[in-house]
Design a protein that fits this description.
Blueprint lengths: L2 H16 L4 H10 L5 H4 L2 H4 L12 H28 L5 H20 L2 H4 L4 H7 L12 H10 L20 H5 L18 H21 L4 H10 L5 H30 L3 H6 L5 H4 L2 H4 L10 H5 L3 H8 L1
Helix pairs in contact: 5-6, 5-9, 6-13, 9-11, 13-18
Bound molecules: protoporphyrin IX containing FE.
Protoporphyrin IX containing FE binds next to helix 5 and helix 13.
Length: 315
């Protein structure tokens, strides 16, 4: 037997002995097991069985699949953020920067591909099949909310008009009551919470508050402060955080807003008549003023938040 093979068998023996296992049984397993295929490895058949349109319109699967693609990217982002969170005070600048670049790359891919929604479906089909999907909305994406919660100190997610009521010491549960997104899910006509929000809160509020408590002190911003303490908060890292703030809070929301404008543009009175939300006043970044890292922007940049991008995005 060649010496490399012998060496490997010896290593394997040690590995199995260490946990009280017999290498022979595992070698038998290797002998009988099938070769791995691409389709089994990535669970292709399962993946392609997960699109279940509610109507027969051929454009509905585009809507489903693009949402699924987005959720998978959100999941990639959350995995990177989790790795950073786990390092906590041990975080090092190289690791932080590399992970921030990954996160930004994923969000950039989502932003630049949003044309799939904006231009990629027939308006007539969309307006019909969406009626079969009510009251579901991307608004109910818990992964999107976790990205927000894991990025910034919780207070930054409190509605812009309520922020002064809270301090960095307020509890997550208290601040959750004034979280900005509630204002996006209120019926225009009655001022009541929409069913979309009620369903979402019922399923996720507890989980999101727990997630927020777990992230407190270890959000991306808190980790940046750890790096600052260590004298490692480089210009490159600051640039990556500013890019993240821009992508999550301006560029992606504007790409998304553009699709709402393309398909749903109506007068507020007509929206109210059908129990809709005032998304035209809610979605644009210049109204939400959601800013993860205010410390990294000038007063003027925050004052004009989202404005300089609007012309380009909506032209
Ligand atoms: C034609 C495509 C789309 C249209 C017309 C659209 C429309 C809307 C509207 C009107 C809202 C406001 C809340 C509501 O009234 O339900 C909303 C919220 C939201 N949608 Fe979409 N959407 C589209 C695609 C997507 C996609 C692909 C995603 C990806 C997951 C998504 C994620 C979200 C999120 C996260 C919110 C909440 C935003 C916030 O709170 O600031 N949407 N969408």
């Amino acid at each position: 037997m060649d010496s490399k093979l012998e060496e490997k068998i010896e290593l394997l023996k040690k590995k199995y002995e260490a946990s009280g296992q017999d290498i022979n049984s595992y070698l038998d397993g290797l002998l009988y097991s099938e070769y791995l295929t691409y389709w089994d490895y990535i669970e292709l058949d399962t993946l392609l069985s997960l699109q279940k349109p509610k109507t027969g319109f051929p454009d509905e699967p585009i809507f489903i699949i693009y949402h699924q693609i987005t959720e998978l990217y959100f999941n990639l982002i959350l995995r990177e953020m989790e790795q950073m969170k786990v390092r906590g005070n041990q975080i090092e600048s190289d690791f932080f920067l590399e992970r921030m670049e990954r996160v930004n790359r994923y969000f950039e891919a989502l932003t630049t591909s949003f044309e799939v929604m904006i231009d990629g479906m027939e308006k007539e089909q969309f307006l019909k099949f969406r009626m079969a999907l009510l009251p579901a909305s991307g608004f109910q994406s818990a992964q999107y909310r976790k990205i927000e919660i894991g990025s910034a100190q919780f207070m930054r997610l409190v509605h812009v008009d309520q922020r002064e009521k809270y301090t960095l010491n307020s509890s997550i549960a208290e601040m959750y009551e004034a979280i900005y997104w509630k204002w996006g899910a209120t019926e225009l006509a009655t001022g009541k919470k929409t069913l979309t929000l009620l369903q979402f809160e019922d399923k996720y509020s507890e989980e999101l508050i727990r997630f927020g408590e777990g992230a407190a002190g270890r959000t991306l911003w808190d980790l940046a402060l750890v790096l600052k303490e260590k004298g490692q908060l480089s210009d490159e890292i600051i640039a990556s955080l500013r890019k993240h703030d821009t992508l999550v809070n301006v560029t992606w929301p504007l790409a998304h807003y553009k699709s709402a404008v393309r398909y749903l543009q109506r007068k507020p009175e007509d929206i109210a008549a059908t129990g809709g939300t005032n998304w035209q006043k809610y979605l644009p970044p210049r109204f939400q003023k959601r800013i993860f890292y205010p410390e990294l922007w000038t007063e003027q940049e925050m004052e004009e938040w989202g404005k300089s991008w609007v012309k380009d995005a909506l032209s």
